[in-house]
Amino acid sequence: MNISKVVLGTTLLSSILLSSAYASKQMVFKTEILPVCGIEVDDAMGSINFSDSISPSSAAFTVQTNHRNGYAIVSFTGIDTTDNITNKDGYFEVLDKFNNKTPIDWNNPQSAYGYHNEKQEVFAMVPQESNTILAGTASVTTTLEVRCD
Amino acid sequence: MINKLISLIVLSTFLFAHSQTPTKYGGAENKLDSISTKQIKIIPITIQNLNKYNQSYNIEVDGDIVGSTNMLISKQVKRLKIPVKIYKKNTLENHSVCTISIARSKDEMFNTKICTKVLLYWTTEK
């Protein structure tokens, strides 16, 4: 009877020690993944599209973010136009993969959503016939500002 | 009828890009980062030049350009320590630290700008 108790006790103690010994050998690998925000601008060659443009031409950008909401806010800041298209009601038109069009007024630009890894086309639009615009180079430049917070 | 208007808005055809981390510094998720015992808090920012060519970047704090990076070679990662001034004690303040690609020519249609939202609290308690 006493021997049985001793054997049982020893077995239990061994089991506990063995399991704790295994537990102490567990390894944990842990890394904090920081949120990253990025943007690629591709198809960077485009034309300004006038109301009589036959084949609209676009530029495009792609947001890269590992944020769990999967999108970023893209603002068009510092919009700068040449004199011949200033005050001509120009705007950018952002086209997403669902063919939703977001107009970005050059005089009062609003932000647009940029979705992770989705290429979004940007059209530069001037709603006037090209023959009403003073001859010369017409250009528009802007800063694409991305916020992923 | 056909106007000789040249309407090219971009003469460059290359892809360009950059990335920045973190997107947010401090705040409810990371309160310790927000706290500063001094008026100036150093904010660590990491940027990467994802272009296939060299690129430098302006550094903007709260809307003001405070400096610029050296030329980063393609794929180079650069860790920056940006000082940000806190204006009021014992008040949670919003700040922003941004990097802006510097145009290589005036013909580039886009610059890229990425911002980190920074929440800071200058405490006088010790």
What does this structure look like?
The complex is a heterodimer of chains A (149) and B (126). Chain A is mainly beta and 149 residues long. Chain A has one helix and nine strands, in the order αβββββββββ. In chain A, the strands form two sheets. In chain A, strands 1, 2, 3, 5, 6 and 8 form a six-stranded mixed beta sheet that branches. In chain A, strands 7-4-9 form a three-stranded antiparallel beta sheet, with no helix packed on it. The longest helix of chain A is centred in the N-terminal third of the chain and has 22 residues, at 2-23. Chain B is mainly beta and 126 residues long. Chain B has one helix at 31-34, and strands at residues 16-21, 24-25, 35-36, 40-49, 57-61, 64-68, 77-85, 92-101, 110-122. Mean pLDDT of chain B is 85; it is low at 1-14. The interface between A and B is large, with 41 and 40 residues.
SS class of chain A: mainly beta
What percent strand of chain A?
Answer: 35-45%
Shape of chain B: elongated
Stretches of chain B where pLDDT is under 50 for at least 5 consecutive residues are 1-14
Number of strands of chain A: 9
The multimeric state of the shown protein is heterodimer
Return Rg of chain A in Å: 31 Å
Largest sheet of chain B: 6 strands, mixed
The number of helical elements of chain B comes to 1
Number of helices of chain A: 1
Report the end-to-end length of chain B measured between terminal Cα atoms.
76 Å
Question: By helix and strand content of chain B, what is the structural category?
Answer: mainly beta
Largest interface: A-B, 41 and 40 residues
The average pLDDT of chain B is 85
